[in-house]
Amino acid sequence: MNSHRCPLMKTIFSFLVLSMVVILPPSVAQAEHEGKIQILLLGDSTTEGSIPRLLKPKGPHLEQVIEQLLAAEGDLPACHVINSSLSGEYIRRLFDSGRYDRDAAKLPGLDYIFIRYGINDRARRKNFTENFPKDFHELLARLRKDHPNAQLIPMTVIPFSNEQASKEINDLVFDVAKKEKLDVFDIYPRYAAELKKGPNMLNYRRYPLAKVPEKYHALVKPFVYRDRVQVMSNELDPILGHLPGWYRDRHPNLAGYNVIADETTEYLAKLLREKKAK
After folding, report:
1. 67 and 192 assigned to the same domain
2. Quick check: is 88 in a domain?
3. Which of 41, 63, 90, 206 could form a disulfide with 249 if both were Cys (CB 3.0 to 4.6 A apart)?
4. Which residues, in sequence order, are CB contacts of 242 under 8 Å at separation 6+?
5. What is the per-residue pLDDT across 252-274, written as a single tens digit (0 to 9) for each?
6. 4-28 pLDDT, tens per residue?
């Protein structure tokens, strides 16, 4: 290379770099990682979706649907949704099992963290009304420490238990959020409204094979996993719907998770647009 051209080339290169810095718009992400907004879902079985994953492994499942719906908006940045939830989990177990340190503490570049606990906490945590808020505050403190750039979003539970039990949980979530100066993503009303279209539309059927009359065993054979008949929706209802407890399991089926995904997308899209506007 001609030595007389070097100063000129350096000047041109510096100008191009400076132009890129000036022209490129600021990222919507606070802690963007690998070019995408990073969204973490923390919760129990009503977030994990283990049975839908068993029955329909290819999905799409909750985190994938949220990504697809956000992309379909057309004006939002690329997003990556991480579903780090576990069946049977409650906040104390999240810590005591070591799963928080293993699966959540070191995730890079988180921008939004959705937190939905309470159902198992109420069933398994002693002195629930006292200890659940303490556990929730502890979780928020850890998340702030480990992910200081993330926006923390406490969520209400879906209508899994009866209305009174759900209200008890959700009232505590609102109280914790108020003390922490956080907004609550209240998903309960939308899910409850969808259930009015059909009380069993959004839950799968999971029923012990031993309780199914033997004359139906050939019929249900394609739906048997381990020792249970497990059906995503209503196809066996006309034949087995009369069995006591057939509709007892209230975990979401894929339709239920799509309600959660759709409402979550609407909530997130608003946040992302507000951030972009600033």
Report:
1. yes
2. yes
3. 206
4. none
5. 999 999 999 999 999 999 999 99
6. 444 444 443 443 333 333 333 333 3
